[in-house]
Amino acid sequence: MEKFDVIVVGAGTGGCLAAKTIAGAGFNVCLADRKKQEDVGEKICGDAIGKHHFDKLGLSYPVGAELERKILGIKIYSPNNETVFHVAEKELFGFILNRRRFGQRLLNYAIKAGSTFLELTHAVEPLLEGNYVTGVLTRDLKTQKQLRLSGKIIVDASGFSAILRKKLPQEIGIDTEINKEDVVVCYREIRKLKTQIPEEEFLELYLSQEIAPGGYSWIFPERGNRVNVGLGLAMVGKFPNPKTQLYNHVLPKPLFEDSSLTSGGTWYAPTRRPLDCMTGNGIAIVGDAACQVNPIHGGGMGPSMIAGKLAGETIIEALEKRDVSREGLWMYNPRYMEWYGAKQAGLDVFRMFLQEGGDDNLDYGMKYKLITEEDLLKASMGEDVHLNITEKTRRLFRGLGRISLVKNLREVANLLTKVKTLYLNYPRSPQGFEEWRRNVEELFSVAKTKLKPT
Ligand SMILES: Cc1cc2nc3c(=O)[nH]c(=O)nc-3n(C[C@H](O)[C@H](O)[C@H](O)COP(=O)(O)OP(=O)(O)OC[C@H]3O[C@@H](n4cnc5c(N)ncnc54)[C@H](O)[C@@H]3O)c2cc1C
Fold first, then answer.
1. Looking at domain 2-47+100-176+274-330, which CATH architecture does it have?
2. Which of 111, 197, 246, 322 has the fewest beta carbons closer than 10 A?
3. CA–CA separation, 432 vs 446, rounded Å?
4. Phi, psi of 46 (to 5 degrees)
């Protein structure tokens, strides 16, 4: 059995940052992925990322072939397309990446830091000794032979598949399953247009709940006249097929006339608050496997890299202290919550409001500026939304027969602040966890009942 200090399963954005951080401190790291080395980074994704993530992580900006396009802002269309929010704030500056090349850069960072990279290595399940995770059972996809890898700490960074997390025994204390309703299924294509992309430095989002219930459709400009176009919808009830919706409602737009398909595919994003607990004896969970995705726009590259770095730093401390227990790894939880998780949890409330609100309410809300560009920007960045609901607004919406919308928005703003505060006060040790978790459950059950339209 091969022995490592740390085994990271999954060489996506999260796994590479974790491996780079830990190997960079001199530990013996194995980074395993079922993909071939040259395919690492290839993924069904919108490929858009905010510049601020690079600044926070100290990563250089993408250049050359890794950069598809610089982004200056975003256009958000109301469900009936009558209102368009045109937001070009500094906070939204960003990039459309060539995902494969960006993934290759991150993989190279991990390898250069000293990680051993195992390509075409499929993780099958976690190996346990007592109540500790101590290794990973893998299968070599070239030979189909099984290989047991042993590690003092294992990181599950296998993306939405969460291959290890899903097979953990209950005693480890990490949720193995998440609600299907909190998952968005997406169909995405890369298309070459015959026409010029209008305002090619802007991302376009279309909010119709009828077409993309619980999600949205997007058109993101890439290099030349290529676009990344897709549609994601929540897996609630008898949800429609996202590919059918894209073909029936988005691709018939004149922009796509005579366009040609380069590639297409389906994948999933867990658009909810982060897992309540992301550490157990000998294990930490990072990225999509830990549900670290922005619940409103589904962006997960930034948070997964932040989490990879924070988990990596905590793992280094645990190895130095020789304490790889849940307690020894615990601080990764509050550190992530402080850096991104609290914002994410607040946005989960906002997501529920948008999903429950219905197209009419959103049309009215955007048209009459009950929800402004600034609110949406702040909300998507995870900042508190201080709604400016005046007597005039109240009268206007009462007149429109939509006073419940005003009430619900006020409720959202209050709940968002409460949820964020709770997450910022995440317990510093496992002792306070059960009580904290009960408080989370209580707040979210209030959110679910209160945000239903009346
Ligand atoms: C359609 C769509 C559009 C999106 N658009 C955006 C966007 O525009 N911007 C943004 O920031 N985010 C976007 N996201 C989310 C983003 O793609 C993810 O949040 C991000 O890639 C998460 O990184 P990760 O490292 O957790 O997982 P991943 O990047 O998914 O990496 C997981 C890795 O684990 C490997 N793996 C999986 N199972 C196993 C196994 N059993 N054994 C070994 N290896 C395994 C995979 O091969 C993969 O390399 C989008 C997601 C979807 C589905």
1. 3-Layer(bba) Sandwich (3.50)
2. 322
3. 22
4. -80, -20
- What b/e readout covers 182-210, taking b as 16+ CB neighbours within 10 angstroms? bbbbbbbbbbebeeebeebebbbbbbbbe
Structure tokens at 109: 């960072």
Tell whether ligand 1 has an atom less than 6 A from the beta carbon of residue 288.
Answer: yes
Domain 2-47+100-176+274-330 shares a fold with domain 67-97+180-270: no
**Domain boundaries of the chain, sorted by first residue:** 2-47+100-176+274-330, 67-97+180-270, 343-450
Ligand 1 atom closest to Cα of residue 10: 34
- Which amino acid, residue 25? A
Question: What is the Å distance from ligand 1's center to 11 Cα?
Answer: 9
Query: The whole model's pTM is what?
Result: 0.95
pLDDT recorded at residue 453: 52
Centroid of ligand 1 to alpha carbon of 12 (angstroms): 6
- Give the pLDDT confidence of 214-235 residue by residue, as tens digits: 999 999 999 999 999 999 999 9
State pLDDT tens for residues 388-442.
667 777 777 777 777 777 777 788 888 888 999 999 999 999 999 999 999 999 9
* C-beta 8 within 6 A of ligand 1: no
357 vs 409: CA distance, rounded Å: 10
Which residue has the least CA distance to atom 16 on ligand 1? 300
Among protein residues, the one whose CA lies closest to atom 1 of ligand 1: 45
DSSP 11-27: -SHHHHHHHHHHHHTT-
406 CB within 6 A, ligand 1: no
Residues sharing a CB contact under 8 Å with residue 227, sequence separation 6 or more, in sequence order? 190, 191, 193, 197, 219, 220, 221
Determine the residue of 16, 17, 30, 34 to mutate for testing ligand 1's pocket, defined as the one with the most ligand atoms within 8 A of the Cβ atom: 34
pLDDT tens, residue by residue, 340-382? 999 999 989 888 887 777 888 888 888 887 777 777 767 666 6
For atom 31 of ligand 1, which residue has the closest CA?
12
Least confident of 249-258, 309-318, 414-423: 414-423
- The pLDDT assigned to 362 comes to 83
Band (pLDDT 50/70/90 cuts) for residue 283 is very high
CA 8 / ligand 1 centre spacing (Å): 14
| DSSP structural state of residue 232 | E
The answer, yes or no, to whether any atom of ligand 1 lies below 6 A from the CB of 33, is yes
What is 67-97+180-270's CATH number? 3.30.9.10
